[in-house]
Amino acid sequence: MIKLLAKFFSKSQIPADLDCDAFIVSVFKALLNRKPDLDGLESYRQHLKNGESHDFVLRSILASDEYKEKSQNFGSKKTIKNPLDLIELSDNGKLMVQQLTACQQLSQDHYQQVWHDIFETDKELVVGQAEYCNQHKDRFWELFNGIDLLLKRRVSSTTVATHGNGKLLEIGVSEFSGFYQHLWPELEVHTLDRPYEEGYIGFTESVAQKISACSAHFSVDLNDPASLAEKTRPKAMAQYDVIVFAEVLEHLTVNPVELLTALIALLKPGGYIYLTTPNFFRWRNLDKISQWENPQEVYPAADDNWDAHYHHREYGLKELLEFSEQSGGVCQAWYFSDCWDRGNDVPDSLPEWQRSNLVTVIARPTETEAKKYTKNIFPKEIASRSDGMMVSPAGVPRPVMMNVETVNTCTLNCVFCAYGSMQRAKETMSLELFEKAISDYSELGGGQLSLTPVVGEIFTDRFLDERLELIQKYENISGVSITTNAVGLRRFKEEKLDRVLQRLNRVHVSIYGVDAEEHQLITQKDTFELFLEGFKRLSEFVGDPEKLWVNFRLFKHREPEELEQWLKQAIGFVPTYFSTIEYAKWSGHEEAPIALPLDAKWNAKPKAESFCVIPAVSAQVHTNGNVSICHCDDYECEPDLSLGNIADSSLSELFDSEKYRNFWGLRGDNMPNFCKGCGFFTAIGDGNKFEEAVAEPLSFIGG
Description:
The protein is of the alpha/beta class and about 700 residues long. The strands form 3 sheets. It has a 9-stranded mixed beta sheet with strand order 13-12-11-10-9-8-16-17-18. A 7-stranded mixed beta sheet has the order 3-2-1-4-5-7-6, with helices on both faces. α11 links the parallel β1 (about 165-170) and β2 (about 190-195).
C-alpha cells in the first residue's frame, strides 16, 4: 500500500504546478476523507519545505491512530481487500470450480490432435483465425473442459460414456467451432452470430454451418435482446443444455440483464450458460490506473471496428453476479482465469482476483429452486398450496395452465350465455399469432393447453387442424383439450376429424337438452338433430372412450339412470359425465333472463372478498392476442383484467408485470368491479377447491 501510494505521489507523478498545500490536502482527502486541520497542514508544510519526501507524509498519516481506526471501519463501508470474499459459494459450487479449473475432463492428446487437424494443415482458415488460434488456444482448452463437465452434469452417465448427447448453443463462431463434432460426435450444436451479408469475409451463416456442422444457425444482433426469442423461435425456446457465451458480452452495447434474461429463457430448466469475459480489474488495468492512465481503449477511428473487436464495456465479478440474479438465473460457479496471463511481463505472484479473465456458470432454476420465487409473488393462500406449479422454470409467476381462444363465433345462442351480449368483433385468430401464443406458453414451461373459446364453438375454427399440427413442435405442451357443442362437425370430413381428435387428450361435449324441445328452449336454435349427428361422430372417432367427457346442461331435472340410458342410446356407451340445472350469471350480462324455465335456476351470486381460484388455474389469450387474467368470464376483454397483448409482449413479460403482481394483492372492495359481479367467482378458501383445481385443472375448468 505504501509503495503504491508513494509511487502514485512521487515527484515524477506530481504535476509541476502542484504546491505543497495541494499535495497535503489531496493526501488527507484520500486517506482520511477530510480536509487537514490548520495545525496538521502547517506541520506537514514545514516538513516538506525542510526537505522531507512525500513518502514521509504518507507514512506519517498511515501510522496515525486516526487512519488505523478509519481503515478498520471507514464510515459504513468496509474496504474490500479481496473480491473473492464478496460471495460464499455453496459446497456444490466450490466443487464445480475445482473441476472447472482442473481441466481434467478431456484428453489433452485428443485436443492437440484436433487442433493440429484444424490449424496446422493446408486447410484454408477464415481471415484472422491463424493468429486467433494461438492467442486463444489455452482459453479454449479450458472452455471445452468446462463444457464437457457441464454436459456430464446434464446428461446421463450412460450416454456421456460414448461422448454424450444433449443440445448446445454457441454464441460467437470461430474456427474453434469445428471442435464440437470431434469432441462430442452425438452433441446437437446450434450456432449464433451477428448478421452478415453473404460475401463477407467472416463467419456468415454458410461459413458457420460448414465449420461447425451445426444443425441450425441464427443470425441475431444481440444488441437487441427482444429479437433473440423471435429469431430463434421455435427451435431454441427452452431447449438448450448449455449455452456458450464466451468473450462476447464486452463487444455489445446492451443492458446485460435484458440480454441474460433472454438467454436464460433459451435454456432447459437446470441448463447452464458458460459465460466468460475480460476481468476489468485485471492487473494490467490496475497498473494503468495507478499511472493515471485510462485502461479503456479509445473507440476505433472510421471503419477500424469493421470486425466488431472493440470492447464497449468490460465487467467486474460483483456486477456480473448481480446481473445473473436480476436476470432470474442462479450463479452456480465463478472464478478468475489466467488464460490471458502469459508472457514475461506477468507478475510472479499474481493475486487470483487480478487475473485477466472472468468465468461464470449461470443456471436456469429448476422448478424446485423456482418455488422460492412463487412464495414472494402469490399470497400465502396460493403459494403454500400450489406445490410449485405456479412458476415457470425461470422463476416467472404463472397460472397452472393456459386457454387460447382461437375463434369467438358460436353455432348456438344459449339463453344463459353472454355470447348474445358480446360486443367485441367476431374473428378467428391468425396462425402467426397463435404460434406466438403457444411458443410463449412453452417458454413459460408449458403444460396443459385448452382451445375452448370463452364464448364460441371450437369447430367453427377453419384452422383447427393446422393449429394442432403446430402444437406438435412444442414438447413442453403436455396435452390439448377442447369443449364443443358438436353442432358444427359437418364441415369436418372423416379424415380431418379423425386427425384432430387423435391429437387431443380430452374432448368435452356440452349437451344442451336431451330432446329437441329442451334443446330449442336452451339454445334458441333448431339444431338438435345436427347435435345428435355430431355427437355420434365424435364418439366414433375419439378413439379412447376415456378422452370423452360429457356435461349435461339441462332445464329439466333428470336422474342419473335416465341420463345414462340416453347416452347408451345416443352413442352406445356411458362416458364420464356431469349434469346441472343451476347456472352462474356472467358479469355484465344484462340481457340474461330474470328467471330460467322449468327446474333451472340461477346460482346465488358469491361474494368476491378473497382470492378466486379461476385466475390461479388458467389465464386466457383472446382471439386478438389480448391476455386476460380470467379464462372463464371475461368475454369482452375487460381492461381491469387485461395484462396486455402477446403481439407486443411475451407471456413471460406479462405474467412478470406489475399489474399481474398487484392483482394478487386485491381483496374485498379493491377487487375489480367485473369480479364483484361475477357469478362464477370461486373463493380459494372454499373447502379443497383450490387443491382439486391444481391437481385436475381440466376437470375444474370443464375442458
